[in-house]
Structures are given as structure tokens and as C-alpha cells.
Design a protein that fits this description.
Blueprint: H1 11-22, H2 28-39, E1 58-59, E2 65-69, H3 77-80, H4 88-99, E3 120-124, H5 137-153, E4 159-163, H6 165-174, E5 188-190, E6 196-200, H7 205-210, H8 215-230
Parallel strand pairs: 2-3, 2-4, 4-6
Antiparallel strand pairs: 1-3, 5-6
């Protein structure tokens, strides 16, 4: 796998959207929280300069699979400036992406660690780290237009993987699906534009430490995504 990211007609619009996201200050509570966390690093990260801003999505502009999480972690994406980077959830996610052939390496430690995604794009429903990992409905709604524009630019995406019920509900809201699809691990729902929403338990420590989500279960999600993105045989 090449270490050079591919470009597409969507590259410029995604980069422009990324800059817009990173300068957003729409939600006062989230702005205050993310900046307060950045000003008071966890003991293990003393001396690091935290990102302390909203976090844009990243990956392959030609992606056929989009992975949507809840929000950046306070000491993960909010520290490193890249979603699912520098935390335990990211270790699970990028390990699974690597095993499925969507990433050139299994780790995502910082923005310049050499990680390249091939065929996948990773993003979040909310772009700022929220207190207690719980965005308010108004904060989610303020942020979702960014996800809508991102998915519109990612014209090759055929499968949207929602990590957790919050992401599932957020994607369903974007597509105005009623009634809201039932969330369950490996549940699949057809979207109005022909894409497939594929649900997974979130790789949070609460789920992985308790065995609610195992590596085999998580790998099954990306194996299924491979089948779905290839289309009918």
C-alpha cells in the first residue's frame, strides 16, 4: 500500500470544509470545554500542546466506506487534532481498519505518524470534545451540516459505518429516516441515496473492557463493509 494519499475532485472541497470546521465556534459550551481541557493536560501528556479545536474528518477522498464516531475524545482527538487518534478507541478502530486493508498501519498516534487510509474516511457526528462524551441535541444539530457536506463530497462512499447509537441516530437524522432505524451491532439499513448504513458498537473502553465488543465482532463489521461496498455480484 502506498504511503501517499490519493487525490480526487473532492479533495479541494474536503480540505476547504476541514478548515471551516477547525475554525468553528458555534457552540459556546463545547468551545469552553475543549479549550479548558487543552489548558489543563492530563498528567501523562504534560508538556504537549493540545489541539483544542474542532476536529475535521480525514482519509481517502475516493473512500467507499465512511466511518462515523460520536465526537473527539478530550485527551485523544482534542489533543492530537485528528479524530480517533491518541486514545484507546483509536487503537481498536485503526487496528481493525488495518486488518481489513483500509489502513497502511494499525496505529494512530499523532497527525504526522504516517497513517494513510485507502478506501476509507473517518469522521464524527460532533467535531468538538463534549463534557462526559455527551453532546447536547442542539450541539449535535449545529454540527450535522458539516457531516452532510462531507458525505456529499465523498461521492464514492457506498457504506456508512456508524460507531454507536449516537452516530447511528445522527446519520439517520441526516437522511430523514422515519421511523429511526433500530440500532444493533451489524444491523444494516438502506439509505435513500442507495448507500447502506452499517451499525457497530462503539470501540469505547466501556464496551471493549467489558467484552460487549470483541475484536472478532469489530472485524466482522469491516469484513461486511468490504462485501457491501463491492455491490451485488
Amino acid at each position: 500500500m502506498t504511503n501517499e494519499p490519493r487525490t480526487s475532485p473532492a479533495t479541494e472541497s474536503l480540505e476547504s470544509l476541514g478548515h471551516e470546521i477547525e475554525s468553528c465556534r458555534l457552540c459556546p459550551r463545547l468551545v469552553e470545554w475543549r479549550e479548558a481541557v487543552a489548558a489543563s493536560p492530563r498528567a501523562s501528556f504534560i508538556g504537549e500542546t493540545y489541539w483544542g479545536r474542532p476536529v475535521a474528518g480525514f482519509g481517502d477522498p475516493w473512500a467507499r466506506v465512511g466511518v462515523i464516531g460520536l465526537a473527539p475524545a478530550a485527551h485523544g482527538g482534542n489533543r492530537t487534532g485528528r479524530v480517533f487518534t491518541g486514545d484507546r478507541s483509536g487503537e481498536w478502530l485503526f487496528g481493525a481498519l488495518w486488518r481489513a486493508g483500509y489502513a497502511n498501519q494499525p496505529n494512530s498516534d499523532h497527525r504526522d505518524d504516517g497513517l494513510v487510509l485507502n478506501g476509507a474516511w473517518v469522521s464524527a457526528a460532533v467535531r468538538c470534545a463534549p463534557p462526559a462524551n455527551k453532546p447536547l441535541p442542539s450541539e449535535r444539530d449545529a454540527c450535522l451540516p458539516y457531516l452532510r457536506r462531507e458525505l456529499e463530497a465523498l461521492t464514492e462512499v457506498r457504506v456508512i459505518i456508524a460507531l454507536g447509537q449516537f452516530a447511528c441516530s445522527s446519520v439517520a437524522g441526516l437522511f430523514s429516516i422515519k421511523p429511526r432505524p433500530k440500532f444493533a451491532h451489524l444491523a444494516e439499513h438502506a439509505l435513500p441515496d442507495g448507500r447502506t448504513l452499517l451499525c457497530s458498537f462503539h470501540p469505547s473502553q466501556q464496551n471493549t473492557f467489558t467484552g460487549k465488543l470483541t475484536r472478532e465482532m469489530f472485524d466482522a463489521v469491516f469484513a461486511r463493509a468490504r462485501v457491501l461496498e463491492a455491490g451485488p455480484t
